[in-house]
Amino acid sequence: MSRNRVAFSRLVLTGLILVGCSPQSFSTPLENAEGDHLTSHQEMLAFLEHLQEGTDEFTLDPIGTSVEGRGLVLLHFRGREDGAVPSAEKLKVLVFAQQHGDEPSGKEAAIALARDIATGAFAGFLEHIDFYLIPQVNPDGSEARQRENAEGMDLNRDHLTLDTPEVQAVHRVFRDVMPEVVLDVHEYGITSRAWLEMGVRKDFGQQIGALSNPNMSLRLRSYAWTRVIPEMADALAPKGVSLNRYLVSDGPDARFRYSTTALNDGRNSTGIYNALTFLIEGRNGLTVEDNIRERARQQLETMKAFLGFFDENAREVRELVHAEQAVLAGDDPPPEVALVMDYVPDPERPAVTVGVVDADTGEKRSMVIEDFHPRVEATLFVERPRGYVIPPDLTQVIGVLERHGVPMTPLDTALTMELAGYRVRGTTVGEKEDKEFLDVDVSSSRGVRTVPAGHILVQARGIQTNLIVSLLEPQSQWGLAPLPQFAALLEVGREYPILRIPGGLD
Known about the structure:
22 strands, Aminopeptidase, alpha+beta, 8-stranded mixed beta sheet
């Protein structure tokens, strides 16, 4: 049977099963509201529970709680087991939304997406995709109409240390599921001072970012740039949605670049496992509520185009991701890990054109930006070690590794082995990606040492190898050492307390 006939048969079967369960039977809280009303956390949970009970098309499971005790939930749509693709061979896709409480359109779109899938209005992709959805990561911030969580933490800057319960929950789901594809849904502001001083607001459409850190598979990065994003843009154009690569800038007179290479956001922190990961930035409003219906519509269409691409290419993507993860976790991963990087100009792409709206008249026009830095260049590499030795008193470091699920082995007895160490010669403050960056100068030494019992051995092997090296190296731009709470690691004139294992472990 052809794929189109299979899809049609499944649609007919779904329609027979869900008689009376049309999308209109489950209007979302936003659809039922008068005006631009944001769905509360309580309203969202009540709606999802009602939808689950009324359709039985997904599981609804608790995955944690926020700082203020609000529940975080995971929706899992498996599809039916009578399809041509066995469940174990489906492409696993994870989508999560509203890490930032003042960016609600992703949550509103996720609620509508859940409804459309559960009622069969948009469910054909489930033949090839095992779909997981976290509709809201930051309920406390959402209720307060603020970016941060209840403790003032920016959740999308916590994917390195995993200090917040909300981000811990996301990473537990990621490690439990190990999806091949991840999407993190956000919004970008349009009214920053630098733009208004020029009399314009941003009008960049829907923006999408992909893997950006050079330690991630170039095959995956290229696939995102040349296949996923262009085909999504083509699918969205008839829907009245413009999709562009995600641009970052401090203002129209500042340099423009693509999104960060940092490992402390939801996209790169999962992409470091060589998963195929993305970030959506929808256009925010003049207020949190302003034009929320259209903002949510565009986010919903973007999510559907995203799932549509991976439905059409599920087998290819699954094989590609698994092949690149096998390289990372195998006996011969890339010999070096990039520690320092930044965006630089590209002679083949010297400028970029962006859309803007006149702040007074509302007229739309284009603006050409000459200061464009689209290419990532790594400037410092380290030879990949076999592992590290961590003193037991570095409890903060050990806690981060535990929260990432990194295997660690405490030594029962003293162990004599060849180790490499660093001595911190100095630190200076520089700038990378338009932010302050700590430049660390070290000298290195190597020799046989005896490691006391109780020290922790961490092997830099397996699918987490790039994450482990990036976290623990003293010169790592996106590691632990440059963070203020780990300042004691970089005491000038002293040895960096974490030692490298340059050879194999016995």
